[in-house]
Structure formats: structure tokens, C-alpha cells
Write a structure and sequence with these properties.
The complex is a heterodimer of chains A (417) and B (466). Chain A has helices at residues 2-19, 26-46, 55-72, 74-97, 102-105, 108-125, 146-166, 175-196, 199-216, 220-237, 242-246, 251-260, 271-283, 306-339, 343-367, 385-416, and strands at residues 127-129, 132-138, 142-144. Chain A is mainly α. Chain B is an alpha+beta fold. Chain B is built from 19 helices and 17 strands. Chain B has helices spanning 2-29, 31-35, 42-47, 80-87, 94-98, 100-104, 112-117, 132-142, 176-183, 193-196, 204-216, 218-222, 249-254, 258-268, 270-280, 306-315, 324-335, 371-384, 448-465; strands at residues 55-56, 62-69, 72-77, 125-128, 147-153, 159-165, 225-227, 230-233, 236-239, 245-247, 339-342, 346-350, 356-359, 363-367, 404-410, 420-428, 435-444. The chains are: A mainly alpha (417), B alpha+beta (466).
Chain lengths: 417, 466
């Protein structure tokens, strides 16, 4: 944790020097590691039984997020610090409130209802921004993206549902529930695609449903078929016709054009993709240096395209390190899933890790033109309050699973001794 | 389930590996082609972070100097209007555009000390051949007129002054609306007249014909021509204000005999004339001049109107158009003994700590005429200074300097316009020219004002050269 703080501090000091800013601004970059340090100390105060690796990449990514956001817009960076503080509180609250992960299983149905409700409410009353209806405003308070919370609730719901399915005797496991889960999952993703016009959220929700179903059941064929159907429907929606009109009237088509051949429309549909790639190109191997890139012409650089900004400032070496931090988090998450004693805990850890991986890979793949560009935020790095708070809750839940795993491991060790 | 979780985790890691490979492709292999894309704005945006280099004249006047500004660096202009066409008003115009990589440090300043002392490698300085005082004097002389001044040092082809009027203030060109106002001004203040504007060269072309005739030698150069006041050339009648009688080449030049010059070119033939123009590079664009330039225009000397077109070319009228730089280059060639050189504007590129990184010099384009021919043309020009009130004028050199020159005033349609373009080409000092100056004034009633301005500038520059 101290190392994370030191690296962020050094990076910010360099950025301050380069940008000619007053040194006291550096304190903001030190804030995220400091917050996480406080959370870690608070958790240690309650109980030291937890995964000690998981919070380090979070602290480093958050510190880097401030460095990157600051060079884009100081106001956004300041707001991000506040959201990080809120996120840390939520993480702490999650860890303190969830005494035993298995207790969450009872609330899995409630989580499912909550997830669907959040999505439906957004579909009906959501605010439209940049062509996608993802935002929900609370009059007089704030606006947030319910899908960031809904996806965690969906994982909790699926973990409960699939754990129930797995705990049945093998003979009692019929294909019916699996097909229903897949159908509902694909239907939910398509509903999000049509009603919210958001390919990213749709892909994320569908991906989580398919992967968790694959992990928990033996229905490989059904999962593959559902995935295939979803891809075909999305591809059809990119062609002119009824589906395209339903799915936003050309929004998807533009995404696909920007993916397949951004140079065919460089000033409009392909602009974001091309600017993202030129950011990468200017980064080279070792980058332009913190704060020395020029992503001013990159649309939504602060959220969707933050990885391109990082790749320009820190180069291939720095951005590869960022990917490795995510890989480290995912690895710890999957390790927890493998070590968890209960099916629910294992599925929850695997689902949350999958969510983290999918979110990262969807946006990184989009920037690198491996996948179509989707409006998904990069966990802990992109600007966005809902995303930040949601991801802290996600890590909080993983820490809860880790606490249980560590407790059982300690107990086993004691028994063996 | 364990195996499936492991498989999924492995698949995820494989995707991370694929992402890294693809990223390496974009960041390393495809980077050169991506950074060369026209939509790449990074270089210009990044340049604001680096302390840009200065643009300074040969006598040390800072015409562009970096100053701290919000979000990075900006430029302060020294004498903005006098140097506006040279500096440009943004990163895409003038020297700021042409030397963007050097000034912004993108090209690398090659100075490890500067790199060590500043977080972003600073830009390099660009030193011009232009003399700050001469440029300001030229800009001051042109105030209230439309036209240009170009002064080049004979010895090395360095441009000492290159002023264009009307000019603009780069400081008031910060918004697209302000740029639009200047760009749509009918007097074309954005045009850098010495290299971009095409003028009918008028009697200056007679000197080209004279050089061609002397260079060819033989009977054409020695012959005397009959001027009866008018001569039928194909379907065109060439007229002189008076009948000059039998005139030799020097007489024809000094007495401004259009008939004799046309007869001379007719005898020379279109092929010889065109070959001579090619050897002089008279119609070529000035590619090494750093700033944008236009190519000269000449009607086809071999089509069905070939004879008439040749007469137009010799008299520098109708469809013949040259830039002041092209005319200057011709007289520079004569002053340099027949060697054609491309004048140059930028002398050096220096590192932030003052080390010379790059040195420029005039590019030789080969020999156009023999040394004897050039010397004879110079002698003719000196003689031309004795006659006033024709196209040749007495330039009134100060006693200690001496000088020589030619002036012409050409009106496209006297009845319609009443105003014409006045040219003055002069050299100083006369015994051994060191400076060649071309001055053009547009829409003036006669050549007097141009002669006065040219004379005073030539005296000023000549003194500097001495």
C-alpha cells in the first residue's frame, strides 16, 4: 500500500513539474492511496483475515486515475477524489455489514428483482446522454448509472440461483432452469440494447450471464447457442432495418463502421477510434511522460478512452503494467473462487471477477480494435461516480469472500497443527 | 466447476496476452503510419507543453520569443507587423508552420543539458538571414502601399529583407473569425508578395532578352535594328512612343525601344529564348525559400500565336507573370557572374544553449550565362542609370556608394485603370554589387514613388553591406 502511494506520489510530482502546477495539488493524487490505506487499517482493526493483495492494485489504479484525470480536467479529478472517498466508505460498509457471504444467498432473489427494477426504471425514466439512456436522476440530488449497481446485483442473483441449481442432486438437474436463465439473460441484454441503446452494458450483462452459467452448469452447448444468437441479433441490428431502428437507429451501425474501417469515416464515426489509436502511437514504448500526452481531441477521454490516455502518457510499458494490475485483481478473484468452500461464495467470487475482467477487456479490446468500441468504463481508472462506487462495492464483496476463505484456511491450518 | 473456473481464468489471461500483442502492434509497428495521419493533432497539442524555440534575425532581433501562458507556452511577437509574413500567425503558417518540429522540440534539440534541465525537451532556435533593421525599414517604406521589397546579398544569396504590404497583425488573428476577416480582405494582406504574387514583369524582361542575346553572341548581338515607331510581329503591332531609328542592343535597352527588343527576340527564335529561360530557372517555384511560392507563367512560344507570344514574353506584358523573387533571382544571377542560386531565408538552427545544429546556404542551380555576359549586362545597367524619364531611371546613388538599377512601370490597360505596377530593381554598391533589391508597388500612377523608395532602401542596405 505504501508502495502504491509512493508511485502515485512520484508520478503526480512529475506531472506537477511538467504542467507547472503548484506542488500542493499533488496531495490530491496521494488521496486515493491514502483512502485505501485508511480502509485497510480499519479492516485490520476489525479483523486482519482478508486478502491483502486485492487492495494494492485498487490503490495504484485510483492514484493513477487522479494523475490522468487531472491532466484532462482538474475539476473532474477533484470530483473523482470525492467519489473515491464515497467508494471507500461503501467498501468499508460492505465489509462490515456482510459478516458472512453465505448470508447474502438468502437475498439473491431480492438482488435479482433489484437489478431488473433498476434496469426497467432506467429504460423508462432514464436520461439520454451521447445517444445512450443510462442515467437516472434523483431530483435535487444527483444523477447516477443504475447499471453499475445492477450488474453487481445480477451477479449476486445468478450466484444464488446457480448455487441452488448445483446443490441439487445430479439427477434432479434438468436443462429447463439453465435454458430459462440463458433466455432471461439474453433477453435482458437485448432489452438494454433496445431500450437503453447501450451496447457496452448489454454485452457486459450478457457476458456475465453466459460465463456464470457456463461455470456453474455443464450446458456448454446451450451457452454457446445463446451467445451465438446474441451475436447474430446484434450483427443484424447493425444492418439497416427494423432491428436497427429498434436498437437506436444507426448507433450500432456507426459502432461497427468505426470498428471495421474507421478510416472510411475519419471525421465522424471513426474519429474516436482513430484518435484513440493515435494516442497509442504517440505513447510508443515508454510513453510521453505523465501529463505530456495530448489527448485533448480524444472524445470521452476521461471515461471510455482513459486507457488510451494512459497508453500515451505511460507508453506500452506503463499500460501493460496497468493491464497486469487488472490481471492481478482477476487472478486473486479467481483464486478466491477456487478456494471458496461454499458454491455460492465460489460463484460470487467468479462472477465478480468475471465482471471486472469483462469490463476491462471490453473497453481495452474496443480501444485496440479487437472488439467494437463500447461505452464501458475502465474499473477504478475512468471518471465516473457510479462506476467508482460500484467497483469499490465489488471489491468489498470479494474481500468478504476472502475473509471467509482465510478463516477456513486458518481453521484448517489450526486443525492440522 | 473448478476446472471450468480455471479454464475461464486462463481464457481471460489469454485475452490479456492478445491485447498486449495488439497494443504492441499499434504502439510500435503501426505507430509511424498512425502519427503521419492527417487527423493526428497530438504533435501540435503537445507542442504547447514544451518551451518553444525562438525565431531571431541575423542581428539578434527576437521576432518570436516564448512566454509562459495558461496551460503551457505561447509566443510573443517582436515587431509583429513587419515580420508577420515570415513568422506566420499560427502553427500552420509561415516559419512557425515550416519549422514546427524544430521550434516545438519534436525534431529533438540534440542538447542533453537542455533536456536535463527542463521536464519537456525544449525547442530549438531558428536564426534567419534577414536583418531586423533592414526588414523594419522595408516594412516602414511600404506603409500605405501595396507591394513588396526583397533584398538579397550577392555573396551568398542570403535574404536580407522580405517585406510585403499590406501586412497584418498576427496578434489579432487568434480566432477563426479574425482570420476570416483578414483572409477575405480584398487587398490580400495574407499574401506574401515577394514569392506568391505574380506580376507582369514589364521591362525587366527586356534585360532577360538582352542577356539571352549577349549570351548567344553572333550576328544578333552585333546587329543594329530599325525602329520606325511600329513593327508588325505576326498579327500584332509592336509600338514605340517615338521612332528610335537604327538602334543597337545597348541603345534599345537604354532608350526603351520595344520594337528593337521584339525584333531581337524574333531573330533569336522561340527555342533559344525558352532554353535560356530554363537555364535561368525563371519560371520555377522557389522550393527552398521556406515560405510558399508561385511558379511563373509564360504563354506557349510554339503554338499558332508563337511570334506574338514571344513578343509578349520579351516585353513582359499580357499573359506573362513572374514573382518578384524570380526577377530578383535573374538580377542576382547577373551580379554573381552568371551562376543561378536560390536565395535562402533561414541561416541556422541552434540548440537552446546556443550550439549550431544545422547550417543552411543558398542552393546553386547551375550556371545560366558566361561570366562575360553577366559583366556586360551589369555594365549596361550602370549605363542605364544615366537616362531618366524613360523606363530607365537615374537612381541618384549617394556619392560614396554608387549603384545601378532599372525601373519599369507597366499598366495593363491605361485607359481603364490609369494605374499600374512599378518595378525597381537595383544593385549597390555599383562597382562591385553586394546587394540586389527588388521593389514592386501596385496600382501607382508612375514609377517615381517606387524609384524614391527603392533608392532610399538601396542606400540604406548598401551602407549596411559596406
Amino acid at each position: 500500500m505504501a508502495l502504491a502511494g509512493l508511485i502515485s506520489g512520484l508520478a503526480m510530482t512529475h506531472a506537477c513539474l511538467v504542467m507547472g502546477l503548484a506542488p500542493y495539488h499533488a496531495s490530491r493524487a496521494l488521496a486515493p492511496p491514502a483512502f485505501v490505506l485508511v480502509v485497510a487499517l480499519a479492516l485490520n482493526y476489525v479483523s486482519s483475515r482478508r486478502d491483502h493483495t486485492l487492495l494494492m492494485p485498487v490503490a495504484m489504479l485510483c492514484g493513477l486515475s487522479i494523475v490522468l484525470l487531472w491532466r484532462l480536467d482538474g475539476f473532474l479529478a477533484a470530483k473523482q477524489v470525492i467519489w473515491m472517498a464515497v467508494g471507500c466508505l461503501m467498501l468499508l460498509a460492505t465489509c462490515l455489514l456482510v459478516d458472512d457471504v453465505e448470508n447474502l444467498r438468502a437475498a439473491s432473489s431480492l438482488a435479482g428483482v433489484g437489478a431488473v427494477l433498476l434496469l426497467v426504471v432506467t429504460m423508462i425514466w432514464g436520461e439520454e446522454r451521447n445517444g445512450a439512456r443510462l442515467w437516472l436522476g434523483i431530483p435535487g440530488l444527483a444523477v447516477f448509472q443504475p447499471v453499475e449497481l445492477a450488474k453487481i446485483l445480477l451477479v449476486m442473483f445468478l450466484a444464488g440461483l446457480l448455487a441452488d441449481y448445483r446443490e441439487r442432486p445430479p439427477r434432479a438437474r434438468s436443462a429447463g432452469p439453465v435454458l430459462v436463465i440463458l433466455a432471461v439473460g439474453v433477453g435482458l441484454a437485448l432489452a438494454v440494447l433496445v431500450a437503453q441503446r447501450d451496447l457496452g452494458a448489454a454485452a457486459l450483462l450478457a457476458g456475465v450471464v453466459l460465463v456464470m452459467t457456463y461455470l456453474a452448469t455443464e450446458a456448454r452447448g446451450a451457452v454457446a447457442a445463446a451467445g451465438g444468437i446474441l451475436v447474430i441479433v446484434i450483427l443484424l441490428a447493425t444492418q439497416p432495418g427494423v432491428l436497427a431502428n429498434l436498437a437506436g437507429g444507426g448507433v450500432l451501425e456507426r459502432r461497427v463502421v468505426a470498428w471495421v474501417d474507421p478510416w472510411s469515416d475519419p471525421q465522424d464515426a471513426g474519429w474516436q477510434a482513430i484518435q484513440g489509436l493515435t494516442c497509442l502511437a504517440h505513447g510508443g514504448v515508454f510513453g510521453a511522460g505523465p501529463g505530456l500526452g495530448a489527448p485533448q481531441d480524444l472524445p470521452v477521454a476521461e471515461s471510455d478512452m482513459i486507457y488510451a490516455v494512459a497508453a500515451e502518457d505511460l507508453g506500452f510499458a506503463g499500460s501493460a503494467a496497468i493491464l497486469l494490475l487488472y490481471a492481478l485483481m482477476a487472478w486473486r478473484g479467481f483464486q478466491l473462487a477456487l478456494s471458496a468452500r461454499g458454491t455460492y461464495s465460489a460463484l460470487l467470487a467468479a462472477g465478480l471477477s468475471t465482471l471486472l475482467c469483462l469490463q476491462t477487456l471490453l473497453i481495452v479490446g474496443g480501444i485496440l480494435r479487437i472488439l467494437p468500441l463500447t461505452g464501458v468504463t475502465m474499473p477504478f481508472l475512468s471518471y465516473g461516480g457510479s462506476s467508482m462506487v460500484g467497483n469499490y462495492i465489488l471489491v468489498g464483496l470479494l474481500l468478504c469472500v476472502s475473509r471467509e476463505v482465510t478463516w477456513h484456511n486458518d481453521r484448517r491450518g489450526r486443525l492440522q497443527a | 466447476m473448478r476446472a471450468r473456473i480455471e479454464a475461464w481464468a486462463a481464457a481471460t489471461l489469454c485475452f490479456v496476452g492478445l491485447a498486449l500483442v495488439v497494443q504492441a502492434y499499434w504502439q510500435v509497428i503501426a505507430a509511424p503510419s498512425l502519427t503521419a495521419l492527417p487527423w493526428d493533432t497530438h504533435k501540435r497539442l503537445r507542442a504547447k507543453l514544451a518551451r518553444p524555440g525562438r525565431v531571431i534575425t541575423r542581428d539578434g532581433v527576437e521576432i518570436l520569443a516564448p512566454v509562459r501562458a495558461e496551460g503551457g507556452w505561447a509566443y510573443r511577437y517582436g515587431a509583429p507587423e513587419a515580420f508577420a509574413h515570415l513568422t506566420g500567425y499560427d502553427e500552420q503558417t509561415g516559419l512557425r508552420g515550416k519549422f514546427f518540429d524544430v521550434l516545438s522540440g519534436e525534431a529533438g534539440c540534440g542538447d542533453w543539458r537542455a533536456w536535463l534541465m527542463e521536464p519537456v525537451p525544449p525547442g530549438c532556435d531558428v536564426v534567419l538571414t534577414v536583418d531586423g533593421r533592414a526588414q523594419e525599414a522595408a516594412a516602414e517604406a511600404l506603409k500605405g502601399y501595396r507591394g513588396c521589397v526583397l533584398a538579397v546579398r550577392v555573396g551568398d544569396g542570403a535574404v536580407l529583407a522580405a517585406a510585403s504590404a499590406p501586412t497584418y497583425n498576427p496578434l489579432s488573428m487568434s480566432t477563426p473569425e479574425e482570420v476570416d476577416v483578414v483572409a477575405t480582405d480584398p487587398h490580400e494582406p495574407l499574401l506574401f508578395r515577394p514569392t506568391q504574387k505574380l506580376y507582369a514583369p514589364g521591362w525587366a524582361m527586356a534585360w532577360v532578352t538582352a542577356a539571352a542575346t549577349v549570351e548567344t553572341g553572333g550576328e544578333v548581338a552585333r546587329r543594329r535594328w530599325q525602329c520606325d515607331g511600329a513593327w508588325q510581329c505576326g498579327r500584332m503591332t509592336v509600338r514605340c512612343p517615338v521612332a528610335h531609328g537604327r538602334v543597337s542592343l545597348p541603345d534599345a535597352l537604354l532608350r526603351h525601344c520595344r520594337v528593337a527588343m521584339t525584333q531581337m527576340s524574333d531573330a533569336l527564335g522561340p527555342q533559344a529564348f525558352r532554353n535560356f529561360l530554363k537555364a535561368l530557372h525563371l519560371l520555377d517555384q522557389a522550393s527552398d525559400m521556406v515560405l510558399p511560392s508561385a511558379a511563373g507563367r509564360m504563354p506557349d512560344l510554339f503554338d499558332w500565336r508563337g511570334r506574338e507570344n514571344l513578343a509578349d514574353a520579351v516585353l513582359g506584358e499580357r499573359f506573362v507573370r513572374l514573382t518578384p523573387l524570380a526577377v530578383e533571382r535573374f538580377f542576382l544571377t547577373m551580379a554573381r557572374g552568371g551562376e543561378v542560386v536560390q536565395p535562402y531565408l533561414v541561416a541556422q538552427v541552434k540548440s537552446p544553449s546556443g550550439h549550431v545544429l544545422q547550417v543552411f546556404q543558398a542552393k546553386s542551380l547551375g550556371r545560366a550565362v558566361r561570366q562575360e555576359t553577366a559583366a556586360e549586362i551589369l555594365e549596361l545597367m550602370k549605363a542605364g542609370g544615366e537616362i531618366y524619364k524613360s523606363a530607365m531611371v537615374e537612381l541618384g546613388w549617394s556619392q560614396d556608394l554608387g549603384g545601378t538599377g532599372a525601373a519599369a512601370w507597366w499598366v495593363p490597360d491605361p485607359e481603364k485603370h490609369g494605374l499600374g505596377t512599378a518595378w525597381v530593381v537595383g544593385m549597390a554598391p555599383a562597382p562591385q554589387p553586394q546587394i540586389v533589391l527588388t521593389l514592386v508597388l501596385e496600382d501607382v500612377p508612375d514609377e517615381k514613388m517606387a524609384v524614391e523608395l527603392g533608392m532610399s532602401l538601396l542606400n540604406y542596405l548598401g551602407r549596411m553591406a559596406v
